[in-house]
Amino acid sequence: MSITTHRMQFPLSREDALRLRAGDQVIIDGEIVITAGLPTHQRLVAALGGAEPLPMDLSGESLFHLGSYSREVEGKFKVDYMNPTTSTRFNPYMPTLIRGLQLHAVGGKGGLDSTCVQALREVGGSICRFLAAGVRSCRVRSRRSCRWGGRTCSFTTGWYAFA
Q: What single-letter DSSP state applies at residue 45?
């Protein structure tokens, strides 16, 4: 089986998500959203249920389970690293988030369970699985926004490569 490499604009469209096949490599240009941990996912699900407003417009975004460390250096935002975190712990929340936000790309380290896969099938989405050190290259052009005390952040990326 040969690996197909795709260079795609994110947030990923439904049409582009449906072009992907298991084992494909994706180079990402554009905007992604990362979240911080289980409490943030619980809060996002509650917000979808009307408990409070969402921290930003997340409809149709690409949501990845990536931890990051960033800081301000000489008045500029600098991301020192982004690293995938295990997605399976988010299984209870992802079907609601996928359906409610019409997410066409989600992922992190490892995979998601069959209920998440079914939700992605319904909305026309794809899982990007990262290897433990799967973010081979990362260039963050800018931080679009950060909300809820930095627990939900949106970045404009130069590119990522997943294998």
A: H
